[in-house]
Amino acid sequence: MQFQQLTYFVAVAEARHFTRAAEEVHVSQPSLSQQIKALESELGAELFSRARGNIDLTDAGEALLPLARRILADADTARHEVQELVQLRRGRVRLGATPSLCTGLLPDVLRAFHDLHPGIRLLLEEGGSRDLVRQLARGALDLALVVLPLPAASPALTAVELLHEDLVVVSSAAGPAPGRRGTVRIADLQGEPLVMFRHGYDLRELTVAACRAEGFEPSFTVEGGEMDAVLGFVRAGLGVAVVPSMVAKRAGHELRTTPLAPPGLRRTIALAHRSDVAPPRAARELQRVLLERGRAGGDG
User: Fold this and answer.
1) What residues have CB less than 8 Å from 190, skipping those under 6 apart?
2) What domains are defined for the chain?
């Protein structure tokens, strides 16, 4: 079994088309088909069904696909690790983070890292914690900033707590302040129009769970947005939103920030990587900067 064969197999599996896959990996279609047949012969099983012109994975192909992706990702990581110079003058880091952390924490941290190592390429993947955990497991990321606790049945990951962050309520500065006496209780959100994040967002689940714990279902005026969209809808006066304090600090004067009354809501951010593979050197350096500056900038 050769890396080239696995590359061709993954390309066909993703394109579901031999000609398009061949174009993607810059090889002729007959050569690609020949390598796929050689791989199938070695494994003793067909990887694709080709009924009526449709290309689908067989059961054997479905079983091989996640393993092939991980093997190729690990090989790519090893190649970059070997190619890095001793002084970290070149290399790359693949970092995953939730949208709120991309808005709140990462701009200053990545600026500091880039100043130290301007030759290191930073590849950022934005997504929810569940998606980032899956990306880590398949070897598509070196590090990921995720919200604890990790999803049930998570793969073997090492997660180091980075910071504890308070959540606050943001509202349009042009409208009335929510709550009383400078704070908002969760109970005050009953009947309050909320601008809500899309399904799968950690902040959505945390806010909805807090409202239900107080005995009511939250009322949404707009739902389904990412962080920037949610803040924009709040600025427009469509409702209030519960967001991390670091995001609120960057939100500008058009938004009013009101803390939640004790005990409030907090979330724990962790820096995670696969337990079975040490992050590349450049990723370890970014890990150091994140732990140093992230802990210094947290609320807890």
Assistant:
1) 211, 214, 216, 218
2) 3-81 (1.10.10.10), 88-163+268-297 (3.40.190.10), 165-266 (3.40.190.10)
